[in-house]
Write a structure and sequence with these properties.
Pathway: Metabolic intermediate biosynthesis; chorismate biosynthesis; chorismate from D-erythrose 4-phosphate and phosphoenolpyruvate: step 3/7. The protein is of the alpha/beta class. It contains 5 helices and 5 strands; from the N terminus they run βααβαβαββα. It has one domain: Rossmann fold. It has a 5-stranded parallel sheet with strand order 2-1-3-4-5, with helices on both faces. α4 links the parallel β3 and β4. Bound molecules: 1,3,4-trihydroxy-5-OXO-cyclohexanecarboxylic acid.
């Protein structure tokens, strides 16, 4: 069976395609999901792709990730910059979490420069639009392969 990766999207990402297209592009969340499923298949990963506007739902899904998922890709959207609760949830997880943002948050308003997720994430990908999700899937596949690889044998 293929390992499963949970891809979680936070508030307002359901509006992609209509929302500030000069910032987020014309790609819809459904387009991104389709791209992730194709890329996941090529990498031998099953993709479960979800979106919610509710912080508590993100917390429940992150907790669920600890039961049966191999990795999480998280675009917590605005909660990235506000949520100690999400920080605590990610911190408690043993599966790796890859933080993604469509836009380059560091080239935007100062309030977007701080992330409560980054200190507890395996890594961060920002500014590459929908491609960022596929890059995160690559990173997840590589981390999983590394975790499964037998330890190097040392010559006597
Ligand atoms: C975002 C960046 C956040 O600052 C913003 O609140 C979002 C989307 C991104 O993908 O670029 O909603 O996470």
């Amino acid at each position: 069976m293929h390992p499963s990766v949970l891809i979680l999207n936070g508030p307002n990402l359901n509006l992609l395609g209509m929302r500030e297209p000069h910032v987020y592009g014309a790609t819809t969340l459904a387009d991104i999901e389709a791209r992730c499923i194709v890329r996941g298949k090529a990498l031998g990963l099953h993709v479960d792709f979800r979106q919610t506007n509710a912080e508590s739902q993100l917390i429940d899904w992150l907790q669920e990730a600890g039961r049966g998922f191999a990795a999480v890709i998280l675009n917590a959207a605005a909660y990235t910059h506000t949520s100690i609760a999400l920080h605590d949830t990610v911190r408690a997880l043993t599966v790796p979490v890859f933080e993604v943002h469509l836009s380059n948050v560091y080239a935007r308003e100062p309030f977007r420069h701080h992330s409560f997720i980054s200190p507890v994430a395996r890594g961060v990908i920002a500014g590459f639009g929908a491609l960022g999700y596929e890059l995160a899937l690559e990173a997840a596949a590589s981390a999983l392969a590394e975790a499964e690889a037998p330890p190097p044998s040392h010559p006597q």
